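F.,

This is the one I mentioned.
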């Protein structure tokens, strides 16, 4: 009876030592962070490889961020070029600056979708059961021959 109690106690301690916790991600000011360290998009996607639903949202967020960046760059150029001409004393084309402002307005919904999808991906990632997804240790106890057997599979 003592050996059974000792076996159960050791098994419980073994399970506690195998329990892993996953550091949570945060998304603030357009940055993905894990324990205070900024992560690039590729790093965050690598963390979410075992979480397909989170990964899909993060892929959508990456696409939205790309479009927002492209439209923002084009709009900034269309505003900045006439502004530079005006500062240099030339004749500025303010219609071009107006078009740039319109292009920047197109970029805003993409940026908003980037933030929404990134936040959703991080929420799903943080809520997922890490132990169920990443703990491949199996412990089986059963009767064998004249006693109790313990099988641990990694």
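My design for it:
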């Amino acid at each position: 009876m003592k050996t059974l109690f000792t076996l159960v106690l050791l098994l419980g301690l073994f399970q506690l030592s195998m329990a892993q916790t996953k550091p949570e991600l945060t998304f603030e000011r357009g940055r993905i962070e894990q324990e205070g360290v900024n992560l690039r998009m590729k790093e965050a996607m690598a963390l979410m490889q075992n979480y397909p639903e989170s990964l899909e949202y993060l892929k959508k967020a990456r696409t939205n961020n790309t479009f927002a960046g492209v439209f923002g760059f084009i709009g900034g150029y269309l505003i900045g070029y006439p502004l530079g001409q005006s500062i240099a004393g030339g004749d500025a084309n303010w219609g071009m600056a107006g078009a740039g402002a319109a292009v920047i307005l197109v970029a805003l919904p993409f940026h908003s979708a980037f933030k929404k999808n990134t936040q959703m991906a991080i929420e799903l990632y943080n809520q997922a059961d890490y132990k169920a997804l990443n703990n491949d240790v199996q412990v089986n106890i059963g009767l064998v021959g004249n006693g109790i057997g313990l099988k641990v599979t990694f």
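The beta strands are 25-28, 31-34, 37-39, 138-144, 147-153.

Talk soon.
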